[in-house]
């Protein structure tokens, strides 16, 4: 509690929420509730690299993709990997900054995924589309935009329809 006015009878509490985490959980739930194939997120990060110093010190680097669709833990392979990006997308030019594209490229390759995609929020309709990486014609990466100007039902229907059509999910 924080004392606001110098008297002992007035206080308030503040809670800080990570809006990126909330958005990621929202997208994950929409997909889980509306797809007939497994949708998940790992509970623990997976190590992908170890940095070793001459003195014997070691640092592990790990990753946790936001959303895995049809993940096979035996093969460490996911048919589809999605990354939810809670960023202000007011126009087409703001989609896919370089670090988002690098991250998606990494996830798709390390998980040997057939498809990958970024999921953004917006207050307007922006159609789903393909991301083409120069020199990688078989990358199969896409972007999706959840239109928050629509009703909840219409927003979910549009998003799930685009996901199913893009990734050929029945």
Task: Write a structural description.
- By secondary structure, the protein is α+β, with helices and mostly antiparallel strands.
- 26% of the residues lie in helices and 34% in strands.
- It has helices spanning 19-34, 98-110, 152-167; strands at residues 2-3, 11-12, 39-40, 46-52, 58-63, 67-72, 77-84, 115-122, 129-133, 136-147.
- Strands 3-6-7-8-10-9 form a 6-stranded mixed sheet, with helices on both faces.
- The protein is globular.
- The model is unreliable at 1-5 (pLDDT under 50).
Number of strands: 10
Largest sheet: 6 strands, mixed
Per DSSP, the total helix count is: 3
Radius of gyration: 20 Å
Strand order within the widest sheet? Answer: 3-6-7-8-10-9
Average per-residue pLDDT, rounded, comes to 88
Structural class: alpha+beta
Query: How much of the polypeptide forms β-strand, as a percent range?
Result: 25-35%
Q: Could you name the ranges where pLDDT drops below 50 across 5 or more consecutive residues?
A: 1-5
The H/E string reads EEHEEEEEHEEEH
- Which geometry do the CA atoms define? globular
Beginning-to-end CA distance, first to last residue:
52 Å
Helical fraction: 25-40%
């Amino acid at each position: 509690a924080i004392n606001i006015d110098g008297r002992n009878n007035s206080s308030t509490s503040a809670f800080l929420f990570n809006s990126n985490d909330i958005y990621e959980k929202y997208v994950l739930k929409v997909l889980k509730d509306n797809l007939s194939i497994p949708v998940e997120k790992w509970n623990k990060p997976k190590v992908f690299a170890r940095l070793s110093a001459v003195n014997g010190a070691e640092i592990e680097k790990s990753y946790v993709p936001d959303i895995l669709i049809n993940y096979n833990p035996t093969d460490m392979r996911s048919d589809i990997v999605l990354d939810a990006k809670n960023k202000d997308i007011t126009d087409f030019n703001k989609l896919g900054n370089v670090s988002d594209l690098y991250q998606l490229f990494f996830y798709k390759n390390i998980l040997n995924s057939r498809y990958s995609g970024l999921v953004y929020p917006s207050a307007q309709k922006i159609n789903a589309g393909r991301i083409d990486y120069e020199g990688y014609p078989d990358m199969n990466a896409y972007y999706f935009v959840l239109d928050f100007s629509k009703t909840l039902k219409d927003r979910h229907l549009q998003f799930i329809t685009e996901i199913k059509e893009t990734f050929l999910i029945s």
